[in-house]
Design brief:
ACP-like_sf
Length: about 90
């Protein structure tokens, strides 16, 4: 398992809390595992979960994730990619 950075730990906890994930803890979310999809190592999230994540990220970090952004599949691919996007947006602000 890849170790989570501080921001990845925070974002993982945000995912667990905002999505009411009952069968996984923040520490158990593999930073490079897919967040979406049917793969065995993914969290198995869906498009409704993506909307919830976008709202939670906006509230927690003040970063707007738009539904029509062509980069969403890359941004939401893994915990690491989502955290990296948040970090880039915070640095640019």
């Amino acid at each position: 398992m890849n170790e989570q950075s501080d921001l990845e730990r925070d974002v993982a906890q945000l995912l667990v809390t905002s999505l009411d994930l009952e069968d996984v803890t923040a520490a158990e979310i593999e930073p490079t595992a897919p967040l979406f999809g049917p793969e065995a190592d993914s969290l198995g999230l869906d498009s409704i979960d993506a909307l919830e994540i976008a709202l939670a990220v906006n509230q927690a970090y003040g970063i707007e994730l738009r539904a029509d952004d062509e980069a969403n599949s890359r941004i939401f691919a893994t915990l690491r990619s989502l955290s990296a996007h948040i970090e880039r947006e915070r640095a640019a602000a």
